[in-house]
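As described in the Methods, two query proteins were run sequentially through the folding procedure within a single session, without resetting any intermediate state between them. The first query and its resulting structure tokens are shown here.
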Amino acid sequence: MNYEIGARVGDYEVLEILGSGGMGRVYKVRNILSDRIEAMKILLPDLAGNPGLADRFMREIKVQASLDHPNIAA
């Protein structure tokens, strides 16, 4: 799914597209509740129905959430 700049996705406002790849697109978003700037990766719609790729996407989320290093923006 592609979101336009300024679109709302749940509690987030899309600010810009940061990049895209084989599994999804990454957006710079603003959490409207905390006013925090974050990144949001959205799985491509044609891949969302593939259980293997959806599982891989979830594993990727968990790995990225566990990263803790001074050179990684949080």
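Immediately afterward, the second query was submitted; its sequence and tokens are:
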Amino acid sequence: MKKSVIIIIIIIIILLILLLVNISNITTKSNQICLIYNYYERDDLYKENFIYFLENGIYEEVDYYIVINGNCTVKIPKRKNVFVYYRKNVGYDFGAYSYAVNNKLIKNYDYYFFMNTSVRGPYLRDTNEKWYDHFIPLFNANVHLVGTSISICTSNAYCVYDDNYKRKTNPHIQTMFFGMDQQYFIELKNDHFFDEDEIIKMDFTDLIKMKEVGLSQKAIEKGYNINCILSKYRDLDYLTLDHDINETSLDGDPYFSDAYFGETIDPYEVIFFKTNRI
């Protein structure tokens, strides 16, 4: 009898150990933030951007979906919260994002971030900070879409995603890095915004208008404001803004040399910095 009890106790202990190991292996399911990274190895600059992010931007409390478009010579670390997928290089950024959104996400998240490989970061002055700490406070009851910077278009034809929707300005989050909360993510999915089959058939001009600009304009149409961490563009009312606040911008775009109120954007101010413009 005593022998049987000992055996049962041993079995229970083994089962508990296995349970703890299993819980450890799936801790990523408790993560409430994800980032979808679109990688295209165009040149050494893009490759260096990717390596920098892998070395500095990966946290265990965030799930990462890395979409490789074509070839990749970068060694990606194996982690339980880093998922890597390969596809043909079609549909540009939103083709890759839609591929992940429709096929690869393991769960629902509170916040969804998107990033392409033209960006290098995170640039953080305090190494104890996390990159997402700077973006999540931008969300509120009427802001469901945020980013590093905002372009305030007034005349560029690329910036009008719907010819029937006329505004004096067409502000939009610049889509090399952006984030949205679960509410807006679900609304976009229900509106078939992430339709990969449709996206890969679009030409580049339509992609800019319908996806890069449309991402923000659809939010504004719904009565939502947008926001970014770039200080002089932060916390403005983009629902009513009727002019470009920056006289030195290039067609509303501050992301060029001397185009940010006569200066050049500081990488540490935007955390994720677009390297192929400056």
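The helical segments are 2-25, 44-56, 92-103, 182-190, 196-199, 204-221, 267-270. We note this only descriptively and draw no conclusion about the first query from it.
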